[in-house]
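Dear Dr. H.,

I hope your travels went smoothly. While you were away I took the liberty of generating a structure for the chain from your last submission, since the lab meeting agenda had it listed for discussion. I wanted you to have the full record in hand beforehand rather than looking at slides cold. The sequence, exactly as received, is reproduced here:
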Amino acid sequence: MILNTIKKTIADYGLLHGGESVLVGLSGGADSVCLTHALCALRDELDITVSAAHINHGIRGVEADRDEEFARQFAMSLGIEFYSVRLDIPAKAKENGVSEETAGRNARYAFFNEICRKYGIDKIATAHNKNDNAETVVMNFMRGGTIKGLGGIPRMRDNIIRPLLGVSRTEIERYCALNNLKYITDSTNLSCDYTRNKVRNRLIPLIEREFNASFTETVTENAVLTAEDSAYIDKTARAEYKRIVTNGRAEIKELISLDAAIRRRVVYYMLSETSGTRSDIGSAYVKSVLSLLQKASGASMDLPYGIRARNEYGFLVTEKRTDETEPFEYTLTAGENYIRELSMTVTVSPADKRERDGAVYLSANEDDKIVIRSRRAGDVFYPCGMTGSKKVKEYFINEKIPRHMRPLVPIIEINGVIAAVGERVDRRFLFADKGIKIEFSDIREVEF
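The corresponding predicted structure, in token form, is as follows:
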């Protein structure tokens, strides 16, 4: 019986505890109707409070409005609180450059969490079932997912619980029939425009018909074992991630020293943290980033979700891509000068003594033409403390200034001649007993 299966799942995995409240994602389909009804039937026994939430995705017009009203009336019939919102998922998908499936999933969880925060609700229950789990495992396998992905849908993640994962779709429909529960069928579930629907409506039925009639049962049982193995490896990899990764940077020799299985996961965590998502980071992306470990410093690659990964002087770095700094040039005047491209203020003032304050001191007058600009091809200067001249590009390489930081290192020119590169003064402009002082308001923007 479904109620016994749900109670066992809740108890075995600690999904709910007495006195807690739970928000059920109620689409109006058989799965969510079954879950909402079942939790209400168990609320006294489990000592829980149940409420429901519905999202009108703005995709199916009148049909979507019908679904919303059905969900509202069903919640009312059970005597529980009901929350709903209307969103334009196609527009959100276009705006964020993701599929409507992904945009819809993100919007659902964002809305559910918003309701939980606002009303102090402890858990979110979604109606994923055994068939959904099998579909997810198959999809993850085809996308090149990791062992974690082959473990299927977790029964609990953060505040999200899935009490129906041990129940098949056939059992759900039987429960609805026995309890005279009406439900609605989303017409898009019958369409094969979406990957999941193709797997559900075509691929799995073919496998069950031609190869293994118990395929769904077999896949979900194996997924449990795989998830347990994954959890152990995950725990080990998390410890290594915390040990060697700081702010998206990991020493390459440390990564190479790790077992391959742990190394892959550490890189996966780096990409996940940088992107802000744990979904759709496939093994192909991880493999591509791992290839950077064998390349020369400066090698980089761009990945989805605005991620850039690069090999930077012995470190693997993952970060959010930013727009390249545009070339700039400003003539500095006495006092404060705002440099938009660097988001900093540069102050020029006379100086008759050099102090240890991090400013740049140059032998020049305020009447000289003082320019701050970005680097240019062929720039050469005579760095103090070094012999001869040095191309600015070679100086950046020798000083191991990361490629992405080089456009942010200001070049100071006096009367058309380079006088300083960042904090490195050209020896022809070495401060003596009188000159100018140049201060950067936020030197962190140009540290290297």
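Two observations you may find useful: The first strand starts at residue 21 and ends at 25. The first helix runs from residue 2 to 13.

With kind regards,
E. W.
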